[in-house]
Amino acid sequence: MIAALTALLAAARVVTLDQALQSARERQPQLRQAQAASEAAAARQSQARAPMLPQVSAIASYQRTTDNSISKPGAPITPGQGGSSFSTLPSLSDNISASMLLFDFGATPNRYRAARAQAEAARDSEQATALQVDFNVRAAYFDARANKALVGVAEETLANQQRHLDQTEGFVQAGTHPEIDLVQARTDTANARVQLINTQNAYEQSKVTLNAAMGILGPTNYDVGDESLLPLLDEDDPTGDRLFEEASKGRPEVAALEQQVRASQLTATALRGQYGPSLSANAGFTQAGESLYRLGWNASFGLTLSWQIFQGGLTNAEVQEAEANVANALAQLDLQRQQIRSDIDSARLAVRAAKATISATQEALTNARVRLQLAEQRYEVGVGSAIELGDAQVALTQAAAQAVQADDRLATARAQLLRAVGRR
Q1: How are beta strands 223-224 and 278-291 bridged, if at all?
Q2: FRET pair for 227, CA 20 to 30 Å: which of 141, 184, 335, 344?
Q3: Which residues constitute the domain of residue 112?
Q4: pLDDT of residue 34
């Protein structure tokens, strides 16, 4: 029962890749920031639509005013006129007015369409942020996993060096090996202990980075799992054309920039509409009097035609700026497509190189283990030297580290390819 409980607790302290991704998707501040930006863009879309809807306002006022007569210079003086008093009379008024834009050569509707395109771009940018967050988690996770494996290599190396030290102490005491072998064995053991401390620290540091990628604040008293990524569809595509076609359709950065281009074009069209007049309808109802029971009223309705004939070249300059923004957005879109192609090719080649490296590193690791066994056997019978034994141990440690790094490079390259194509 106690053993089962201990195993359960130990398992609960192992963070899987799926758990890390889920944590980031729920807690990562970058995602909340992108979501807020998307919501703000949606609000600006509603703001741009408001001028196309009826505008209604109401005003009510109550005042008390004096009713003193004031003569003008040169005016005849009427008998009884003159003097001032602080006596006041009440004055009540209220007004309700409504207006509706009828036509302005597309200026306001195109501003609304531009804001809608900007809102779509913000939503696509939010998806791009989600892709980047997923990649950051995977990269940090695989780095931590590699450092964990390197801790295992360092522990194995220290155990071997300690075993060699114990064996050498016995040989020196028996007089079959020189004392310098014992000094060398102690040095190698101390170096192995230092290497273990360094790898353990690197593992803890990588978990700090993983915590930041997951969007959590907390300790690093957990272990990462030994998961990797399965082979991806079309990762062995020799040209990368299929992957690029998929990325061109699926990468949210492309969709966002396409919406940015559309928004810039619509903004330019809206500004050109300012060259013409605008027509609006209006209606109003007004009441006024000295009391609520003695109010007079008036009603009005009509059409208003306004035309900014000359503003010192302002509209022309705004149109030129908008056209330049269109050219800028198109250039960014072309640059993004080039970057996507570069990302795909780099990730695809990295996957191919890592897959080729893994088989070579595994062969080197197998040979290094055999070499160490032979060196140990030769040292035991007095044929080999301590230097030969130490070199064999160093070679095994290096081969094991290279195997870990090759596996890490493959997992990271596949994560890069996922990001480049736009898959989550």
Answers
A1: unpaired
A2: 344
A3: 15-56+103-277+314-421
A4: 96
Task: Give the phi and the psi of residue 327 in degrees, each rounded to 5.
Answer: -60, -40
Given this model, what pLDDT does residue 76 score?
62
Check residue 90 and give its pLDDT.
Answer: 86
- Would you state the pLDDT for residue 294? 83
pLDDT < 50: residue spans in the chain: 1-12
CATH for 242? 1.20.1600.10
| 225 occurs within a structural domain | yes
pLDDT of residue 55: 95
Residue 161 lies in a domain: yes
Measured distance CA(208)–CA(143) in Å, rounded: 11
308 located within any domain: no
Residue 285 lies in a domain: no
CB 405 within 8 A of CB 146: yes
Burial class (CB in 10 A: 0-12, 13-18, 19+), 99: middle
Give the total number of structural domains in the chain: 1
Four-residue CA torsion sign, 358, 364, 370, 375: negative
